[in-house]
Amino acid sequence: LEELCTGAVAAAPAAATPMEAAVAALDAAAGVFEERGDLVRLRQSVIDANAELRERELIKLASLSGALADALRDRGVP
Fold first, then answer.
1. What pLDDT does 23 receive?
2. C-alpha to C-alpha distance for 78 and 1, rounded to whole angstroms
3. Which has the closest alpha carbon to 76: 26, 14, 32, 28?
4. 10: domain range?
5. Do the Cβ atoms of 1 and 32 come closer than 8 Å?
6. Which of 40, 30, 41 shows the shortest CA–CA distance to 5?
7. DSSP, residue by residue, 1-59
8. 40, 46 contact by CB (below 8 A)
């Protein structure tokens, strides 16, 4: 997911605003979630029921956030 999202930011048109590049990443992620709707819901219910998995998910989301910030900086966003 991280690679997909950062790739979408990198592939956004040069004239795209930072927000448009970020939206491209979210659109790419949404496509994955839409394709696997039932699995995504099941996965989330398992995570919600387990404190250790919730903590791990937060770490993964923080990593994704950092990777997206790096991808935007690579595009010249301060």
1. 97
2. 24
3. 14
4. 2-74
5. yes
6. 30
7. -HHHHHHHHHHS-TT--HHHHHHHHHHHHHHHHHHTHHHHHHHHHHHHT-HHHHHHHHH
8. no
pLDDT tens digits, one per residue of 1-38:
999 999 999 999 999 999 999 999 999 999 999 999 99
Count of domains observed in the chain: 1
Q: Output the pTM of the full model.
A: 0.85
- Whole-number Cα distances in Å, 53 to 33, 50, 59: 19, 5, 10
Distance in angstroms (rounded) separating the CA atoms of residues 42 and 8: 26
Please state, in angstroms and as integers, the Cα–Cα distance from residue 72 to each residue in 9, 25, 37, 61, 64, following that order. Answer: 7, 11, 28, 16, 12
